[in-house]
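Tutorial sheet, problem 5. The two components below are modelled jointly, 233 residues in total.
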Amino acid sequence: QSVLTQPPSVSGAPGQRVTISCTGSSSNIGAGYDVHWYQQLPGTAPKLLIFDNNNRPSGVPDRFSGSKSGTSASLAISGLQAEDEADYYCQSHDNSLTGSLFGGGTKLTVL
Amino acid sequence: QLHLQESGPELVKPSETLSLTCTVSGGSMSNSAYYWGWIRQPPGRGLEWLGTFFYSGTTYYSPSLKSRVTMSVDTSKSQFSLKLTSVSAADTAIYFCARGTVTTCDDCFDSWGQGTLVTVSS
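Model answer (structure tokens):
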């Protein structure tokens, strides 16, 4: 079981807004470590979507946004599109593990 | 444009050593601006961070694998490697190599290889 907890699945209709949560603890997100988000389309490698909580790499649409508060972080996707259907993972650092870790992943279904 | 390519045996026997190499092209490994890592993904499951090493030589490994994993780099060949000893079926996964940029973040990975599936079976 991952130390960073994500909902197994979320869904939304085209055009809607969805959020994916990433819940950690005082040894990772709550300790002030940054959270990053990845998108993994079926059969492909993960792609960095958000880094350091709320920053988008060049080329990532502004429909994707991130936030962090306390021991949790969230990824929001607005104006859902069919091509957003993918698995999404959060990542952070953990003091007790002395290393990085990923959330369990969330499968986004666009209805 | 940066390209990372994993290579190595697709099938490894239980108790043996899994060895993979990541070849980097389109960018230099001899640059303190970057760090390099390995991540794996069992079929149908989530991502698992294995380890990260920095230009300084500092390396961090996943605590759950620390006793079995070794990462090394050969900048002359633009390659970095992963060795995982005493493998079992639980080590069957797609193995990704990846790069991070220190000016972007401390531990995120902004470039990934396509991944290679390694199956542990007799």
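Marking note: The first strand of chain B starts at residue 3 and ends at 7. Full credit if you identified this.
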